[in-house]
Specification:
By secondary structure, the protein is an alpha/beta fold. It has nine helices and five strands; from the N terminus they run βαβαααβαβαααβα.
Amino acid sequence: MKYYIIFGPPGAGKGTQSVLIAKKYNFKHISTGALLRQEIEKRSEIGIIAKAVIEKGEFVSDDIVIEMVRKVLCNNEDSIKGYILDGFPRTLNQAVELDKVLESLGEKISSVLALVTDDEVNIRRIQHRANIEGRKDDADFDTIRNRIRTYHKVTEPLITYYKSQKKYKPVSGELSVEENFRDICKIIDSE
């Protein structure tokens, strides 16, 4: 079983690339953002907590996110060949806990596919997505800026963590969707 993380700041194109990867390689796409939006829509206890945090441009607690991902990974579907983790892990604690979950399954991360982009590109993409999808969490400029600042402060340290494991594979996230996908496929196909 293959386990890939797609990594990058908000607006880098992780969701778009994850869908393409999942389709081509028969992987299950795990989007923590989508899982959280489902909880918000259901107005579950997790959803109510998550909504308040997300609207401030902050990250939902590690415990909630880790448990959601663990449930998906432990309910392995025989028909899939791997997983693409989108938006997870976002903190060092999440990365360590993910390694523990995978180790308990006799598995490990294959590679971290990192979309490298500029903040201004990400802001434009997020604003464009807000217009198309009507996502309130993408519409407010201050919230967008805060999400990007939080990414730099909290998530970027994972680069060092995954580089030390020789799993960090950067690609330019500023090319076209097709060019980014081609570069990502080269990495997956070589493993």
